[in-house]
Amino acid sequence: xxxxxxRRYFVQRVEAGTKYILLKRTGQVVAKQTTTETQIFHMYPxxxxxxxxxxxxxxxxxxxxxxxxxxxxxxxxSATPRTWPTERSVDFxxxxxxxxxxxxxxxxxxxxxxxxxxxxxGAASDAFRFQGQLLSLPVYTNDGLAVIKDVGSGDxxxxxxxxxxxxxxxxxxxxxxxxxxxxxxxxxxxWHDLPxxxxxxxxxxYSGYAAYEKQMKPIAGEGGLFxxxxxxxxxxxxNRMNPRKLVEEDTKEVLWDFETATTFKHSWARQHVxxxxxxxTIELREKGSGVLLIQLQLAANRNIPKQSQAAVRMDIxxxxxxxxxxxxxxxxxxxxxxxxxxxxxxxxxxxxxEPHMVPVEGQKDVFSWNRRLLKLVGQRRNPFRLxxxxxxxxxWTLDRNTKFRYPWARDHFTFRPxxxxxxxxxxxxxxxxxEEKEGEQNLLLLQxxxxxxxxxxxxxxxxxxxxxxxxxxxxxxEYQAENQNSQISLKVGxxxxxxxxxxxxxxxxKIAIDAKDARHFHGDPLLxxxxxxxxxxxxxxxxxxxxxxxxxxxxxxxLQEGDAVITDALSGDVLFRGASGLPxxxxxV
Length: 589
Fold this sequence. Notes:
Elements: H1 4-9, E1 10-15, E2 18-23, E3 29-33, E4 38-40, E5 88-91, E6 102-105, H2 108-117, E7 119-120, E8 127-130, E9 133-136, E10 139-140, E11 146-149, E12 156-160, E13 166-172, H3 177-189, H4 194-199, E14 202-204, H5 207-213, E15 217-218, E16 225-228, E17 231-239, E18 242-248, E19 254-257, H6 258-261, E20 262-264, H7 267-272, E21 273-278, E22 281-286, E23 292-298, H8 316-330, H9 335-340, E24 343-345, H10 348-353, E25 358-359, E26 366-369, E27 372-379, E28 382-388, E29 394-397, E30 402-404, H11 407-412, E31 413-416, E32 420-424, E33 430-434, H12 443-452, E34 454-455, H13 456-459, E35 471-475, E36 495-501, E37 506-513, E38 532-536, E39 540-542, E40 546-549, E41 552-557, E42 563-568, E43 574-579, E44 585-587
Antiparallel strand pairs: 1-2, 2-3, 3-4, 5-6, 7-8, 8-9, 10-11, 11-12, 13-23, 14-20, 15-16, 16-17, 17-18, 18-19, 21-22, 22-23, 24-30, 25-26, 26-27, 27-28, 28-29, 31-32, 32-33, 33-44, 34-40, 35-36, 35-39, 36-37, 37-38, 40-41, 41-42, 42-43
């Protein structure tokens, strides 16, 4: 990219005719432009507004500045303290979202309040209560920002950094030259991801290690030991792709060392500073003496309120109410995965073991690790449980390391696939049953598509073009024009406005919105500047027949009253064909 610093740190938004440039990871407005004026918000002191601060470094160089560590997230502890705004609000509506009001850019203190004072609402699995308000659980945008809304009004009450943000200023525990250097560095670069960007930052020559690694073979039952040309080598480090030291086992000769092979960018930090993360606290200590230099407090490492971490159990009657509401809103399609198994799993403990596990010959799903034999239940890349094969000690389980989205479902119910039944977990009593007789069409899939699909013109924010009353089609197959003078080529996703329906399966039209969502018109699409010509009608589908569902473009047709056919518009696969209706559900309680 010509301007990598812009792409790294900023994002542009257009709302109600006004252009905004926002800081990418905090959402804070840097500049806005209307048709009459351009306004710049000076958030940094003049000496910080330098492109050299945001220089692009070589791809092999670790420690390049991250957007999340931009100066807006750091507070200087120098003799002249800086003051930053704790919140910034911009009054404009969110175009196309149906939500209006203030977009609030919150600071980490506000996020921490939500996480520690919020209480999960028993009746609403996707909401929590905070100071008398019913708020939605955080949703993360493509820019990595957390968004929390008021459930009643739909207003955004928080938009900004979520988990793992630094709460500043840090607490200085010692007065030394090293502390001054750390503070000076952090004043420009921020505090996030200190090990990689400060202590480990540099360029490493892996060529010496690579000469050995290509021919190294794991020794079964000996974690970290490899055979190489008749010698035993011990690898020290997280895994084979992230080595720290390679030593010959018998002679103890160091063949390769990360420290000597690396030219560190901040040698003073490497020599004098150690990093430790304990819970929500970061400690920087002096290497050797262990003296605490600086202490940093992280914002909540969670993305749901604190009280929900300890399973807040509701009684069976409230759970049945939640179950009925869930099924009415989401249907029975893939119910096991979407209701019982959905959640966020922490694989960090498993990931620390898995790279060093060596399969044991002749024993299925048994691995050697750190001179122990482990039994894996599940697949290596999709584990369910990892335990000591001799003692039965559980080293990692999916259930214990997953924060399930609907814990009340797992607490009170079980699911039987055939026949489809939801049962009381304690008594085995059938709570609800969904009929799915053999020979009938898959009404569960049809129900889910109707509930969760989005009309294509809404998904691509093209609802405004329908106001002109023209006929629009979207290309679902690529077409290369044979006659450049009269025909046009099509790419999958091109939206065309038809001006003439021809004979023998050909139409004449103009590209209004291309496959990259670029618009070629201002006002009436028929008067736009897009390429126009003849194209085959079999390569396009009427826009209003298309819906977006689970990342797929589907075509929804009604053959006659009560009958429907749904196909994948790109592959042509038929997902549903038959009488439209709803599956029969019988509630036993």
